[in-house]
Amino acid sequence: MTNDEMKAYLQSIVAKTPFAAFLGAEVISISPGHVELAIPVIPEKMNQHHGFVHGAVIGFVADSACAWAAGSVAGDVVTAEYKLNLLAPAIGDRIIGIGSVIKASSRTVVTKAEIYSERAGERRLVAFAVATVAKTDAK
Amino acid sequence: MTNDEMKAYLQSIVAKTPFAAFLGAEVISISPGHVELAIPVIPEKMNQHHGFVHGAVIGFVADSACAWAAGSVAGDVVTAEYKLNLLAPAIGDRIIGIGSVIKASSRTVVTKAEIYSERAGERRLVAFAVATVAKTDAK
Amino acid sequence: MTNDEMKAYLQSIVAKTPFAAFLGAEVISISPGHVELAIPVIPEKMNQHHGFVHGAVIGFVADSACAWAAGSVAGDVVTAEYKLNLLAPAIGDRIIGIGSVIKASSRTVVTKAEIYSERAGERRLVAFAVATVAKTDAK
Amino acid sequence: MTNDEMKAYLQSIVAKTPFAAFLGAEVISISPGHVELAIPVIPEKMNQHHGFVHGAVIGFVADSACAWAAGSVAGDVVTAEYKLNLLAPAIGDRIIGIGSVIKASSRTVVTKAEIYSERAGERRLVAFAVATVAKTDAK
Description:
Four copies of one chain form a homotetramer. By secondary structure, chain A is an alpha+beta fold. Chain A has helices spanning 3-15, 18-22, 43-46, 55-74; strands at 26-31, 34-40, 77-86, 94-104, 108-119, 122-135. Chain A has a six-stranded antiparallel sheet.
């Protein structure tokens, strides 16, 4: 698959995933070992009671960035575990997730993700994640 | 606050939290150091492409169970970090989160959560989480 | 294997593991899905500069409790990842690790461990760990 | 403090920390937000029964790299929690830990570490860690 085919395929999966579609997830770019995605911030849909984007939305972006980065080198995958550090309140226009592969083994792929809030084009690091992602055929 | 007052207060926070309200989060019980919550499974809203409840929904239940258990002993809190192990695909009528306090310190509360899928009243462990939750006034 | 045979076998592995032997690791009990181990606190060997038992010693007990609990149901294993929350400074006569299985799957076992410091027979929770342990033949 | 003073100070702490001294920990370089350390591999001291460097030794390097990177910007610190992914068996002459700051907040510093085994000057990534480190005066 070329990167463009990989992007189109992943975006078609997102379209069939109600939760991802509800959040408006968009694949910005994908290449082997690397993915960037974004969701638009719609406060009345996704904020929590302190006025920031809900941690579960950050969790979605983190998990997706980690799983999709793994998928870019390993095909169909499922997240086995992840750790998420929430570093700063997320406020802005978009939430960006950048996932990359740390190490691909025969049955699992360990990945990390940086999550940013973006406001007027400026990005601020709001979370950091590490995940162990399992190949589906190897589970 | 009595446990009933705590439950009513928490449910009022949920009602004001769009993301939690969207998922239909319900507080089943809360007492100091312990909380149980549920969300109904609505497949066309929250499944992923393998047909299971999306990991981000499990993440929401895990994070909420951990944060609310911490809140039950520490007041207003914010999750600093959590680790989530996804143990089995979640299928069923409801997702249940049971959070409890491992250790409360002056500035943080460490909590854990078991997450179950429930089908016809029978529960199956689908995830396990550990979180560090910070007191808001101490952040 | 009976529990006694499992204990003798594990203690023989410890004897051949320089690092575990150096720390004086002792298997207190083991049964399928459950293990308890102890190390004696020797301050001039294992304390850090604040006067508490070094985090890496706690890490050893946590990792061992998690891996050995997994091994009690899965045979030869290797830790894939763990998360350790250090809850309180460890002071006392012994460090105790109690490991148990959360979920055993075909290729991995997810386990947890509570780590206590013991002083004059009284135990205090000092750390909590969760680990993903891989079966060696399945890696 | 200059970087050289910071390095000398940290090496003096190591000398007073029996566990770190036992493992032969050496500070290679330190600057604000960044640290590199090494320990020589002495198989008869630190291997486990598969013939690789024991996970607890990797844990020591990971924890030290994370805590020292935090200390380089925050002074006296204590590790609150860390997650360690063991990526490959560690074999070689030295274990290298490279720690860096992800985000420093008022009371905690989130850091990460890459851990390498080194053989004849060639490095191989064997582990990855993320830690939350608390400032001591803020605990």
